[in-house]
Design goal:
The protein is an alpha+beta fold and 223 residues long. The strands form three sheets. Strands 1, 5, 9, 10, 11, 12, 13, 14 and 15 form a nine-stranded mixed beta sheet that branches. The chain has a four-stranded antiparallel beta sheet with strand order 2-3-4-16, with no helix packed on it. The N terminus is likely disordered.
């Protein structure tokens, strides 16, 4: 089950808090195709597919970080939207839903600048309350960064005439003089799945390269 991942893929550091199954995919030398959601994207030059070691490192950091803000209830067999609780945020887990990794790329073999993407089957509750579901996810992200110098921006963006919900987080130094990290999460329902893309980088030029890559995506499936 991967309710944590559903809520937290916006964070590179904590986005891979659970192990995911590989999804059906067709990576070429410079083009990636996911037939299950009809997504095609061209990879930027100089970037490489993220290794399992990179993903495992992110997973370990994520598990440690999320243990401070998430309370898990594995006894509930019906997936429910994440909800605030007096102890933190409770994630009602379902054994039937697992996130599947799609494309994950990085530069210089480190996760300092990276693009992550995954899909998770969307149950009826999430499908009917998707915007509420996203808002709860955003609350968890903000709780994770509580006390940090960080700015948030929510919005929507059309990519190949497909609407995505976006959430941008920019982390600054304590004196707010330096930008330390920028992350942008794209989310939407498509073909019965929650599809998420995360751009994360400590370098402005790498961030812009990945944003350009995402913006150039095409979709043969739009619903």
């Amino acid at each position: 089950m991967n309710s944590i991942r559903v809520a937290l893929s916006a964070l590179l550091i904590i986005g891979f808090a659970c192990k995911n199954k590989p999804a059906a995919q067709t990576p070429a030398k410079d083009i990636y195709i996911s037939k299950i959601i009809g997504w095609t994207v061209s990879l930027p030059e100089g970037w490489q597919i993220m290794t399992r070691s990179n993903l495992d490192t992110i997973q370990k950091l994520g598990t440690k970080t999320m243990s401070k803000v998430i309370v898990f209830d594995s006894t509930d067999t019906n997936t429910k939207p994440l909800t605030p609780s007096s102890q933190g945020y409770s994630a009602h887990l379902s054994k039937d839903e697992e996130a599947q990794d799609l494309l994950s790329i990085t530069k210089d073999s480190t996760p300092a600048s990276a693009f992550l993407s995954d899909i998770t089957p969307a149950n009826e509750r999430v499908t009917n309350q998707f915007e509420q579901f996203l808002q709860t996810s955003y609350h968890i992200l903000k709780a994770t960064y509580a006390g940090k110098e960080i700015e948030y921006e929510e919005g929507t963006e059309n990519i190949d005439r497909v609407k995505f919900y976006t959430f941008i987080m920019t982390l600054y130094s304590k004196d707010h003089a330096r930008q330390l990290l920028q992350q942008k999460l794209y989310s939407r329902l498509i073909n019965g799945y929650i599809f998420r893309m995360t751009v994360s980088s400590i370098k402005k030029e790498d961030f812009e390269t990945l944003i350009k890559m995402v913006s150039g995506s095409t979709f043969s499936i739009r619903d």
